[in-house]
Amino acid sequence: MMTVVAQGTASTDVREALAADQLRLVFQPQIHLATGQVVGFEALLRWHHPQRGILLPREFLPDMERSGLETSVTRWVIERSVLQLRAWEDLGHRGLQMAVSVFADDGIVGYLQDLLARHEIAGNQIELELAESVLTDASPAAVQALQALRRQGVAVAIDDFAAGHSNLRQLARLPLDCLKIDLSVVQGVVTDPSDAMVARMACEIARALRLRIVVEGVETEGQLQFFSDLRCELAQGFFFARPMEAADTVAMLAAGRTFAQALPQHATGERHLLMLDDEPNILRSLRRVFRGQPWTVHIANTPDEAFELLARHPVGVVMSDQRMPLMRGTDFLARVKRLYPDTVRIVLSGYTELQSVTEAINEGAIYKFLTKPWNDTQLNEEIEQAFRQFEMVADTRRLQQRLRETNKQLESRLLQNEERLQREEAALDVTHEALGLVPVPILGVDANGMIAISNAAADLLLGDGSSVVGEHVCDVLPDSRDSRLGGLQPGTRWVRIAGTTYEVRCNDLGAASRGMGTVVTLIQGANT
Ligand code: G
Ligand code: MN
């Protein structure tokens, strides 16, 4: 039977895409932020539709789900990914990882395991990315399937984190290795204080759950700096590279696997001043004023430009015009305060509307309100003072941080000491008890001849059963046959007690311990 497709209508049946071999994978590199190394790629699915052009997954996902083809497509993606890893290996690019978004939640375990074995790819070269909803709705069987894969080294990532519907209770129980922060959050971090806060919280959650963080959709150096500062492990996005065809990945890998030169480098102790004004000639003349000053000047014409610069450089002082078409200076600075609370913020304006100035000052958003036209020398002095203010706060913060660290170290050392004391106390108790059980009378005598320790046998023999601790050794031991015992010189002598002769052995302590004094042992002897 022939299917008649009306002219102009385009099929959205993914079955056809599979049958006519119209699906393709493109690959976006993932970069290790500490080193700039390309550690692997995310495989992204595209449908080369004969009429509609290249379609993104989100454009055909609903159709795919409706026709129940998630499993077939997921298998196709997994197979192509493993084959691509094999191709890279064969070209000498070893140990690369492939992140694969999967739609189906189970049933792929055996399939993947078989592919890995057949193409000799290690489990730890595959990372499965699952949407939050897929993971949190996962059946116990699906969770077990994931665990089986993880035992083989396959990593499991939660995709688009912080923009879905996170069930934190459940998230904490899932078998996960990695958390991908959603692109929409990433793109807001340098301009939107609430996105910045969400990103920080997502990182905290990942740390608490011991998950690696992958930042996706990094487009600017500022965004990258933000996440580097948070010590995120991996990043991907247009800033580094767009998703590319397999052939282009090979060219890129052959040229070297590093993006180190693209990573931001921060030197501390430098002074950075940011100025925002909608009038380019004001910015130009301010630049002239600051020529020769020991600070780097960054200029921005719009708030967005300013936020990007703020994210890229360790700016200490921010100076803004008040009346601008996109945003009032005081509103801009209020936002800067929420993103970078330690910056020192100044308004430079020819326009002094009392209300906005008062508000900004009362909210703590600004440090000084300066007026145009300005006096060059005075302005330079104001900026110098502002930097000193910034550095003072930074120093205080550093000191507080160091204090907190020192306190933490002290606390742990105290804890260690306490544990050691407890152990020693326990050991001492045992020694005491053991001494008590020895059937030979033993005394511990201090340097003055006072008895400090006695065991049960000694008490029985010398004190009629009651403790002789505190007595003088000469009062409880009769004189020896040949000399008084008082001196307790090391050596052996003999005494008679209740008709029995005892050999008195005196040993000075301190050879093998920090003990002081003498141990006196009475050994029943035949010598008379
Ligand atoms: O499903 P997932 O969240 O992995 O989809 C990522 C999508 O985002 C891909 O289609 C990819 O092409 C796209 N993408 C990757 N990097 C960037 C980026 O830096 N900016 C934008 N806007 N999109 C990106
Ligand atoms: Mn994603």
Structural class: alpha/beta
CATH superfamily of the largest domain: EAL domain
- Largest β-sheet summary: 8 strands, mixed, barrel
How are the strands of the largest sheet arranged? 1-2-4-5-6-7-8-9
- Percent in helix: 40-55%
How many structural domains? 3
**For this structure, what is the CATH class of the largest domain?**
Alpha Beta
CATH topology of the largest domain: TIM Barrel
Q: What radius of gyration results from the CA coordinates? A: 39 Å
What is the residue-averaged pLDDT? Answer: 87
Work out the helix count: 18
Low-confidence segments, given as residue ranges, are 1-9
Number of strands: 19
What portion of residues belong to β-strands? 15-25%
**What characteristic shape results from the CA principal axes?**
flat
Distance between the termini: 126 Å
What are the bound molecules? guanosine-5'-monophosphate, manganese (II) ion
Query: Any guess at the CATH architecture of the largest domain?
Result: Alpha-Beta Barrel
Question: Keyphrases for this structure?
Answer:
eight-stranded mixed barrel, flat, TIM Barrel, single chain, Rossmann fold, 528 residues, alpha/beta, binds guanosine-5'-monophosphate, binds manganese (II) ion, disordered N terminus
